[in-house]
Amino acid sequence: MLAPSQRDRISVVLVSPRNPLNIGAVARAMANFGFSHLTAVSPYEPHWREARSAVGSTELLNVAKESPTLSEAVRDCTLVLGTGTLTHRKAEQPVILLDQLAPIVTRELDQPSGRIALIFGPEKHGLTREDLSFCHHLVEIPTDPRQPSMNLGQAAAVCLYELAIRSSPPAEAPGRPPSPDTPRPTSGNLDVLAGLIQQVMLASNYSPRNMQAANEHDLRLMLRRLHLTPADQRRALGLFRRILRRLQALHLS
Amino acid sequence: MLAPSQRDRISVVLVSPRNPLNIGAVARAMANFGFSHLTAVSPYEPHWREARSAVGSTELLNVAKESPTLSEAVRDCTLVLGTGTLTHRKAEQPVILLDQLAPIVTRELDQPSGRIALIFGPEKHGLTREDLSFCHHLVEIPTDPRQPSMNLGQAAAVCLYELAIRSSPPAEAPGRPPSPDTPRPTSGNLDVLAGLIQQVMLASNYSPRNMQAANEHDLRLMLRRLHLTPADQRRALGLFRRILRRLQALHLS
């Protein structure tokens, strides 16, 4: 079972939630399982206000953050987990069944700098392909194929129950050796690197205009697949900065 | 993970549900995790009708049963599990944390005659002491003590996820030996025995009038604690029938 100090490093992120009852239900499940950090990405304002002012609304909803983009909302996280089902598409990142998530969460929280975001999409269609490109893994709740789609509040309750109960307490706790120290760059650091590589792609004429969006998408996914250490990431930043400067110099000469 | 044939031997029972949205949410979670038998005990009729006729209501809600009493609703079950939290009282039966429930469910479903009921109380106050006296175990969801009380639809989702995913497939499946055959009497059989013992209590002047309800309650709990086999139960029935007849004969003589 997770310790409070570990739960404190897990955020729930709702992308464009609409139904105030669902927002309230997610907040309630979070309180039930001892989580307190909620961020809404570009929520529908009237309903977000309504959810926050509802009778019986939890304290954590009142201090919840708002963020214009998902990139911004998960900036300080080292492990970003999207949720959803795969009925209509093939995932572009590793898929993990919810009941097999605990070791991954435990390992991430063993890193002193590890921070996790658990992301839920809008009620109607779930996370988009673009949203999922910010995720290291897609977490799938093992539902019945005949009725795979869960209500938002219920999906959050099931995921938070699993995380809170089945992940392990801190490694200093008796009986479990600490896992090796392999810190990961934050989502924000990866976005900085991706931005630089995109500039290089443009400057080197790698990306024709009609491929720029697709290349940006694939690059984001690739960077999250690579398990870069923060040192790898700094090295790559240094290299691409140098390449960019050289390309620009050649262009000017 | 439970096989469909095992899920088919688990019923969800809602005691006096009121909110149609909650009833719909329980039905949806059942469909998500492949369960199909729902019984409502004395539901509030207008809201029960509303839940059943709601847009998007699941098929299982349309074929759900109604029952006047909890005793009647769980009559054919050999393991009755009540749900709730213990913030305000001490349980009168063994308490099991939800995440430790799987082996008990697996063992019961290994019995060819095993049938399980999972009971949820009304939204406001949960199951009463009387309701719980029909339960072999009280299942507690390990929630945060500062916010222990879950929404009905979310509690059902979490319990059904745990049952569906963490209980084991049939014993014939490779790698698991069948558990020894120890069938249990159904809840209805225990009620028949309890009724007979109560008659004996009266006929023998064991129960003064003001103690009859309390004795009935304690007897119900005790019979569920005893792990009677069906043969034990038949033997006890035979004995108490004989005792009753003898007491009545003496009374007439």
Q: CATH topology of the largest domain in chain A, anyone?
A: Alpha/beta knot
Mean pLDDT of chain A: 89
Strand fraction of chain A equals 5-15%
**Major pleated sheet of chain A:** 7 strands, parallel
End-to-end gap of chain A: 62 Å
Q: Cα-atom Rg of chain A, whole angstroms?
A: 20 Å
Give a written overview of the molecule.
The structure is a homodimer of 253-residue chains. Chain A is of the alpha/beta class. Chain A folds into two domains: 4-166, SPOUT methyltransferase, trefoil knot domain (Alpha/beta knot), CATH 3.40.1280; 187-252. The first copy, chain A, is 46% helix and 12% strand. The first copy, chain A, has eleven helices and seven strands. Chain A has helices spanning 4-7, 20-32, 45-53, 59-62, 70-73, 102-110, 129-132, 152-166, 187-203, 212-225, 230-252; strands at residues 10-15, 37-41, 65-67, 79-83, 95-97, 116-120, 137-140. Chain A has a seven-stranded parallel β-sheet. In chain A, strand 1, helix 2 and strand 2 form a beta-alpha-beta unit. In chain A, helix 9 (187-203) packs across helix 10 and helix 9 packs parallel to helix 11. The N and C termini of chain A lie far apart (62 Å). The relative contact order of chain A is 0.15. The model of chain A has no long low-confidence stretch (mean pLDDT 89). Chain A binds chain B through residues 1, 21, 25, 28-29, 31-34, 58, 98-99, 141-144, 146-151, 153-155, 157-158, 161-162, 164-166, and chain B through 1, 21, 25, 28-29, 31-34, 58, 98-99, 141-144, 146-151, 153-155, 157-158, 161-162, 164-166.
